[in-house]
Specification:
This protein is 35% helix and 14% strand. It is of the alpha+beta class. The strands form 7 sheets. A 4-stranded mixed sheet has the order 3-4-15-12, with helices on both faces. A hairpin with a 5-residue loop joins β6 and β7. Bound molecules: arginine. Arginine binds next to β16 and α7.
Length: 373
């Protein structure tokens, strides 16, 4: 990813030639000092960074730069509706954790700290960056907590079909799945050697069984979801440095679970079952049986998380917060990039204010990006 080693050498006086990577570093350092006036003089820090790049082909963020970079990566995440609280992201600086075991241990600690007994805290754990000619450890799982999927002999899928591929990889590495609908997958960590499996202890996985405030039968569907969505396969990019392993989480918005994970036909596909229990006429699209069932599943999700004392927002509240965020960003003189198709909730979009406008589509850095494999 970094090509400083190849391109840093030419000098003009004592200024390094501005290749693309140095530009990225300089742009970030300038941003940091512009937004953190108390940090001091940008010029001496730029000289320091240039010198370190000259020596080693890369440079090291200070803890303050790392924290700022991670928070701004969240602020720049154009698909995220939950960015109002970007400044509150808690940073766990674990750049020294180099082995698969150390990474696994810190992921476990991350879950405990982020779950916080249900009062979820937006948290990121940052592991080592890639260096020239040195690939840092990474986690293959898309999230720290993901449910396995198994193919039954009749072709049906048990579990979350989204994770068929990851489950196959785990099984190949020797994992023994229990064959259930909500089996938490082990972490697959790539470190020094090849990939290794590390099981998450069940004490750190908070899960919420789903019930409905009015329909007692809903509990019999045997549905549940985990409390913390912790994305673990995106690269945190700050000032030209790539942190390939930097799991981060916020709290869930109900529709992520109720209108997608449990409702999508290629996920848990629960709408036909719920509609049938509701006694709806499912022979005709125009009865809107899917729409009706979708609302009840979402009512159940919000109700169950509240009953379990687990932080979760609804799409009306989160959409209003996002409008506040847009206003604040505008007042700060910043562009707030947003992707309409991700920001608008998958249920009742037009009932929320985020539906009724367009957004800037800029791609800013620092950023969370998907690795190019
Ligand atoms: N939509 C993903 C899921 O259902 C989680 C993405 C991140 N969500 C969040 N609220 N931070 O698991």
């Amino acid at each position: 990813m970094l090509s400083w080693v190849k391109s840093r050498s030419r000098k003009q006086g004592d200024r390094p030639v501005l290749d693309k990577e140095w530009e990225e570093a300089e742009r970030f350092i300038r941003l940091f000092y512009a937004e953190n006036p108390s940090a001091g003089a940008v010029r001496s820090r730029l000289r320091e960074v240039a010198a370190e790049i000259g020596r080693s082909g890369t440079y090291t963020h200070t803890p303050a730069e790392l924290a700022f970079g991670a928070r701004v990566a969240w602020r720049n995440s154009s698909r995220c509706i939950g960015r109002l609280y970007w400044r509150s992201l808690r940073i766990r600086d674990r750049r020294e954790a180099g082995t698969a075991d150390a990474v696994a241990e810190e992921c476990v600690e991350h879950l405990t700290a982020a779950t916080n007994n249900g009062k979820i805290r937006p948290t990121i754990t940052v592991f080592a960056p890639d260096r020239p000619a040195e690939r840092a450890p990474r986690v293959r799982n898309e999230q720290l907590i993901r449910y396995a999927a198994y193919r039954a002999p009749d072709g049906a899928v048990i579990g979350d079909p989204l994770n068929l591929g990851l489950t196959d990889q785990a099984l190949e590495l020797g994992w023994q799945g229990r064959g259930g609908r909500f089996d938490v997958l082990p972490l697959i960590i790539e470190a020094e050697g090849g990939p290794v499996l590390r099981e998450l202890p069940s004490e750190v996985i908070l899960e919420v069984p789903l019930t409905h405030p009015e329909y007692a039968w809903f509990a019999d569907l045997g549905l549940q979801w985990h409390a913390v969505p912790a994305i673990s396969n995106m690269c945190l990019e700050i000032g030209g440095i790539c942190y390939p392993c930097a799991p981060f989480n916020g709290w869930y918005m109900g529709t992520e679970i109720g209108a997608r994970n449990l409702a999508d036909a290629d996920r848990y596909d629960q709408l036909p079952i719920v509609a049938e229990r509701l006694g709806l006429d499912i022979t005709n699209d125009r009865t809107l049986w899917r729409d009706h069932a979708l609302v009840e599943v979402n009512v159940a999700v919000l109700h169950s998380f509240a009953a379990a004392g687990v932080t979760m927002s609804d799409h009306h509240t989160e959409a209003r917060r996002f409008m506040t965020h847009l206003e604040r960003e505008e007042r700060s003189g910043r562009v707030c990039p947003a992707d309409w198709s991700w920001i608008v909730p998958p249920l009742s979009g037009s009932l929320t204010p985020v539906f009724h406008r367009y957004y800037d589509e800029a791609q800013l850095t620092p950023a969370f990006v998907h690795h190019m494999v």
